Amino acid sequence: MSKSRGRNGMSSVGGQRKKLSRGDLRGRRAQAPSAAGDPAAEKKELLRKMRERAEQRAASDRDE
Fold first, then answer.
1. How far apart are CA 7 and CA 45, in angstroms?
2. Which comes out higher in pLDDT, residue 56 or 23?
3. Cα(47)–Cα(5) distance, rounded to whole angstroms?
4. Which of 5, 9, 15, 33 has the maximal Cβ count within 10 Å?
5. d(Cα 55, Cα 59) in Å, to the nearest integer?
6. Mind listing the pLDDT tens digit for each residue in 11-36?
């Protein structure tokens, strides 16, 4: 007769756990070197580009 492994819950399913450092256990975030820039600076740059495009569209609409 075969063993019923599903009877006592789902033991040993899901792989191994990652080894965490002390800093990770305390909530320290991993910082990638310049992968994610300053969010405020990125937002300012995006708004600047959007304003420029809007001005270009307005200028082309006036010319027509």
1. 58
2. 56
3. 58
4. 5
5. 6
6. 666 677 778 888 888 887 766 555 56
What is the Cα–Cα distance from 55 to 10, expressed in whole angstroms?
Answer: 61
Residue 30, C-beta contacts closer than 8 angstroms, at least 6 positions apart: 24
Q: What is the DSSP string of the chain?
A: ----TTTT--TT-S-PPPPPPHHHHTTPPP--TTSS--HHHHHHHHHHHHHHHHHHHHHHHHH-
Euclidean distance between the first and the last CA atom of the chain, given in angstroms as a whole number: 85
Distance CA 26, CA 20 (A): 10
Q: What are phi and psi of 50, to 5 degrees?
A: -65, -40
